[in-house]
Specification:
This protein is an alpha/beta fold. The chain has 14 helices and 19 strands.
Length: 513
């Protein structure tokens, strides 16, 4: 078939194309006219999606979780709900401090798990941090103990009988059953105006003001289970990474404790094979669907040996607890643990928010690296060591299974140096005071007289320094800001045997190097 015979089917191609173009342009014009008329006459009617009846009923019946022990607080929350909502403002219109919840020490009740066998020794730890007539709490014992008047200790109670509960773990102890019920039994005492229950062991040392600072970040009307894991990877694998370790301490909000108390006895019966109290607590939290909220300042300290490496490189977070003091060397050499705690609390009383917080600086003229753990220790190392390395804990300790396996920890560590010239010179805090006129703390750190091997490096030796004076202004609001290490600076000194250091907020563009 030739080309002339193929054309008839397409003879109207040009006419059809013109028709479709005309139709397209007419459609566009009609749409433009319609849209213009709509914009000019639109009365902006409300286009909100109507709620169905069941949704409206649910919203009307909704009440926020609150402190069930405070009817006045419930009424206040109801009144706030009835207020008209304010207009949305994209700019930050309120100060940062008002974003925190107003939890105070009076809103917190402590539950301490103790044993009659170790009470005479362990109660000395409690005396260091407990504030009689200011704090509320209960020590739960297995048997009655001898008490003395005005001893400065919490209320003592005897735990209820737990013989009806099954316990089948051959490696553990039945005391785990009664200890797991400390929070529930404390709640049932009926104390008023409670927002948080904080649990610990009789050898748990709390930095009380930091407990308040940490809990103030959270809404106590919600379900919260706050704590931290063990430092031992093996311990966490054996028990759970989702578990708050009781020796390190943990906190439970009042509404969660209320729900726990209603179901805990039945929950305990379902887990007779668990080892301790804290894993039973976590099992009940799992049934309630509440995960662990991690706060790194709760320290289980499942280690042996010297805590220097851990405490000298504390993370940038409030230090809340210390635990297992009977298993480690005294914090300050040459004295027992109780005396060590007494000295540590001298610094805590002056600036609790900064206790153990690390600062790093350098004496460039002498090529020294300086690490400060405020209120505890100053270390000087020959040479320039990077902040990345200095903020990593030195392995002055062994893990819970008494091995030197560096992979057994849940954080990075570095070995104790073997180089004779890089062994740190250690200065422990010996005294501290507040200079009210200059509104700053003055801490004296004296050199620990340990043996130092001979060094062949041709540079100044820190052994010429006998004492270091650290100056710092207290900063109660430091944790209202984003976490950051303080900066430190070397100050002039008239004596070659002494050094002055200043610690405080970093200046603009200031770095540690």
């Amino acid at each position: 078939m030739n080309s002339t015979q193929q054309r008839p089917p397409y003879a109207c191609y040009g006419g059809c194309r013109s028709y479709f173009l005309c139709f397209f342009f007419m459609t566009i014009m009609i749409y433009i006219i319609y849209a213009s008329n709509h914009l000019l006459t639109d009365d902006h009617q409300d286009c909100s999606i109507p709620l169905d009846i069941s949704t409206q009923n649910n919203l009307q019946n909704f009440m926020p979780l609150t402190n069930l022990s405070s009817p006045s607080l419930q009424l206040k929350l109801q009144e706030e709900e009835q207020k008209e909502p304010e207009e949305e403002n994209l700019e930050l219109a309120v100060p940062l401090s008002s974003q925190l919840f107003d939890t105070e020490l009076k809103h917190i009740v402590f539950g301490i798990a103790a044993s009659s066998k170790s009470w005479e020794q362990r109660k000395q730890y409690i005396k260091q941090w407990w504030r009689p007539s200011v704090m509320r709490g209960v020590v739960w014992l297995d048997k009655p103990v001898r008490t003395r008047r005005n001893e400065g200790l919490p209320l003592i109670q005897i735990s209820k009988d737990t013989s009806r509960f099954k316990y089948t773990n051959r490696q553990g102890d039945r005391s785990a059953l009664r200890i797991s019920r400390v929070v529930s039994e404390t709640l049932k005492l009926g104390m008023e105006d409670v927002r948080w229950f904080v649990m610990g062991d009789d050898d748990t040392v709390f930095v009380v003001d930091n407990v308040v600072r940490v809990l103030s970040k959270y809404d106590h009307r919600q379900f919260y289970y706050i704590g931290s894991s063990s430092e031992s990877h093996t311990q966490n694998m054996f028990f759970s990474y989702a578990m708050a370790y009781g020796g390190g301490g943990f906190a439970i909000s009042y509404p969660l404790a209320f729900e726990l108390a209603k179901m805990q006895d039945r929950c305990i019966q379902r887990y007779p094979g668990l080892y301790g109290s804290d894993d039973r607590m976590q099992a009940c939290m799992a049934e309630l669907g509440v995960p662990l909220t991690r706060e790194a300042g709760f320290h289980q300290y499942d280690v042996y040996g010297d805590l220097l490496g851990l405490l000298a490189a504390h993370p940038a977070t409030p230090m809340v607890t210390i635990h297992h003091l009977d298993f480690v060397e005294p914090i300050f050499p040459g004295m027992n643990q109780v005396k060590s705690l007494e000295r540590l609390f001298e610094s805590i009383k002056l600036d609790s928010s900064s206790i153990m917080q690390q600062s790093i600086c350098y004496h460039h003229n002498r090529s020294w690296s300086i690490s400060i753990s405020w209120g505890y220790v100053v270390q000087i190392v020959r040479g320039i060591v990077s902040p990345r390395e200095l903020e990593m804990p030195t392995r002055t300790f062994l893990n819970w299974y008494r091995s030197a396996d560096y992979t057994a920890y849940t954080f990075n560590t570095r070995p104790v140096t073997r180089h004779p010239c890089q062994k740190p010179f250690i200065f422990y805090m010996t005294s501290t005071r507040l200079d009210k006129g200059r509104r700053q703390t003055v801490g004296i750190y004296s050199r620990h007289r340990g043996n130092h091997p001979a060094c062949r490096w041709k540079m100044d030796s820190p052994e010429t320094i006998d004492s270091i004076t650290v100056l710092k202004r207290p900063d109660d609001l430091r944790w209202h800001k984003s976490p950051r290490r303080d900066c430190c600076r070397v100050m002039p000194s008239r004596r070659s045997s002494s050094m002055y250091l200043w610690v405080g907020n970093c200046r603009e563009n200031e770095i540690s190097i």
